[in-house]
Design a protein that fits this description.
single chain, 457 residues, mainly alpha
Length: 457
C-alpha cells in the first residue's frame, strides 16, 4: 500500500509514508465524520423504537424493526465486500451517507405529516394491536430501515477497509480504540438523551436531526484528499464477480484464527439481539422507564465504552489478547443475567456499562487484528465475509427474541416473558465461552500477526 506523506504527522514514518507515532489529519477527518454520524445513530436509537412502540405493543412487531435493520448484513454483506474492493472506498462512504440522508429526510417528512395522529405509548394497551390508521407508517418504517441498513453495510465495510490507508499498522489499535470511545459517547451517551429531548419537542424532529448528521458526515469524508489510496492499485484485470467473492470466502474459512473468531462473533451478536430486540418493551414494562430514563439507560453503555476504548490496548498488553476476548464473553454473561433479574433501571444501567466496556475491548482487538493480517487487495471481501458471519446472525437473533416473548406469554406472565430472553442469553454466553476459549488464545493471535508481518516483508 502506497500513499503520500501526511504533512501533519511527518515526524517518523513507516510503510506508505504513514506516521508510526501520530494519527494524522486524515484520521481526524474520518474520526469527526464517524462521531457526528454516531450522534445521529444515538438519536435514532431512541426515535425508531419509540416510534414503533407508539404504533404497537406486540413484541414480535417491535422485534421486526430490528430484524429488518440488520437483515442487510445477512443478505448484502458478501456482495458489499466485492463492491468495496472494486471501487474507491472513500467515494462509497460519501455515497452511502448521502443515501441515508435522503431516506431519513423522507421518514422525517412522513412522521411530520402524521405527527398529529401518533399516540403516546400508553394509549396502545392491547399487546396484539396495531393502530389501523398507522399501518402504512409502520410499513414505511420497515422499508426505510431496510434501505438505510443496506447503505450502512456499504459505509461500514468501506470505512473499516479504509482505515489502514490513513493509519500505520502500529497505530491501528490506538486509532480504533480512540474512535470507538468517541463513537460510544456520541451513540449512547449524547445521542439518546438528545433524541429524548427532541421527541419531547416534536415526534419528527429526531429524524430531521439524524438526517443532518449523515449529510455532515458525508462532507467530512469528502474532505479527505482523493490522493489517499482507498482501493487496490491494479483494477484492470478483474475476475468474475462470483470468483472474487469466493476468493475472499476461502481466505477467511481457511484461516485457523479468523474462522472461529467470525463464528464466535456471529453467535455472540445473535444472542445479544435476542435481548436487545425487546429492550424498549422491557424498559417500559419491567424497568418502568420514562422516555428520558430510557435514554439515560444507554449512557451506561457509553461510559463503559469510553473506558473500554481508551484502555483496550493496555488491557490487551497486560493480560493478553486471548484472555481479553474471554473477558468479553464472561462479562457479557454475568451482566446479562443480572439485567434479566432486576427491576431497577439504575442497576441495569451499571450492567450495560460493564458489558459495553468488555464489548469494546473485543472490537478494538479483533478489528485491529483483521486490518493487520488481511492483505489489502482482499480486505474488503474478507472483511465482508467476516461480518456476514458476525452480523448476519443479528436479524435471526432479533426475530428469536420476539418469538420467545410471544410464545412464552402463553405459559408465564408478561413480565416473566420479557425477562426470559435475558436469562436465556446469559446461559448461551457461558456455553459460547466454553466453545471459544480454546480457539481464541494469545498464542494464536500473536502467531497470526507474526505470519502477516512476515508475508508483508
Amino acid at each position: 500500500m502506497t500513499g503520500p506523506i501526511d504533512p501533519s504527522s511527518a515526524t517518523r514514518t513507516g510503510r506508505g509514508g504513514l506516521s508510526t507515532d501520530r494519527l494524522g489529519s486524515n484520521y481526524f477527518k474520518l474520526f469527526a465524520a464517524s462521531t457526528i454520524s454516531n450522534l445521529g445513530d444515538g438519536i435514532a436509537l431512541i426515535a425508531y423504537p419509540w416510534l414503533a412502540s407508539a404504533l404497537t405493543r406486540n413484541p414480535l412487531l417491535i422485534a421486526l424493526v430490528l430484524v429488518v435493520q440488520r437483515l442487510p448484513w445477512l443478505l448484502f454483506s458478501l456482495p458489499a465486500g466485492v463492491i468495496t474492493d472494486r471501487n474507491d472506498r472513500r467515494t462509497l462512504m460519501v455515497g452511502a451517507n448521502l443515501i441515508r440522508t435522503v431516506l431519513t429526510v423522507f421518514v422525517a417528512l412522513v412522521v411530520l405529516n402524521r405527527g398529529d395522529v401518533l399516540p403516546d405509548v400508553d394509549v396502545v394497551a392491547d399487546p396484539d394491536a396495531i393502530i389501523s390508521t398507522n399501518i402504512g407508517l409502520y410499513l414505511l418504517v420497515l422499508a426505510a430501515t431496510l434501505l438505510i441498513g443496506t447503505a450502512e453495510v456499504i459505509y461500514d465495510n468501506a470505512a473499516q477497509t479504509f482505515m489502514p490507508a490513513i493509519v500505520h499498522s502500529k497505530q491501528l489499535e490506538k486509532a480504533n480504540g480512540r474512535m470507538w470511545s468517541v463513537e460510544m459517547v456520541a451513540n449512547t451517551f449524547a445521542g439518546p438523551p438528545l433524541g429524548a429531548l427532541l421527541l419531547a419537542v416534536a415526534f419528527s424532529l429526531p429524524f430531521f436531526v439524524d438526517a443532518a448528521t449523515f449529510g455532515i458526515s458525508a462532507i467530512l469524508v469528502a474532505l479527505i484528499p482523493s490522493a489517499v489510496p482507498s482501493k487496490p492499485g491494479d483494477t484492470t484485470d478483474r475476475k468474475p464477480w462470483r470468483a472474487e467473492l469466493s476468493e475472499g470466502f476461502r481466505w477467511l474459512w481457511n484461516h485457523e484464527l479468523l474462522r472461529p473468531l467470525a463464528i464466535t462473533l456471529g453467535l455472540l451478536n445473535g444472542v445479544g439481539m435476542l435481548m436487545i430486540s425487546i429492550l424498549v418493551l422491557y424498559a417500559q414494562e419491567v424497568l418502568h422507564t420514562s422516555t428520558t430514563e430510557f435514554a439515560l439507560l444507554g449512557t451506561g453503555g457509553a461510559i463503559g465504552g469510553i473506558i473500554g476504548g481508551w484502555t483496550a490496548s493496555q488491557i490487551s498488553s497486560r493480560i493478553g489478547a486471548g484472555p481479553s476476548l474471554w473477558l468479553t464473553l464472561l462479562g457479557g454473561a454475568a451482566t446479562t443475567f443480572v439485567i434479566g433479574l432486576t427491576s431497577w433501571w439504575m442497576l441495569a444501567w451499571l450492567m450495560f456499562a460493564i458489558s459495553s466496556m468488555v464489548g469494546v475491548l473485543w472490537n478494538v482487538i479483533t478489528v485491529s487484528l483483521r486490518q493487520t493480517i488481511i492483505p489489502d487487495h482482499l480486505l474488503g471481501r474478507v472483511n465482508s465475509v467476516y461480518r456476514f458471519f458476525g452480523w448476519g446472525m443479528m436479524p435471526i437473533g432479533s426475530l428469536l427474541g420476539g418469538l420467545v416473548v410471544v410464545t412464552s406469554e402463553t405459559l408465564v406472565s408478561r413480565e416473566m416473558a420479557l425477562r426470559l430472553p435475558w436469562l436465556i442469553g446469559a446461559g448461551l454466553q457461558v456455553l459460547l465461552l466454553v466453545f471459544a476459549a480454546p480457539k481464541l488464545t494469545t498464542q494464536r493471535i500473536e502467531a497470526a500477526r507474526a505470519a502477516a508481518t512476515a508475508d508483508d516483508t
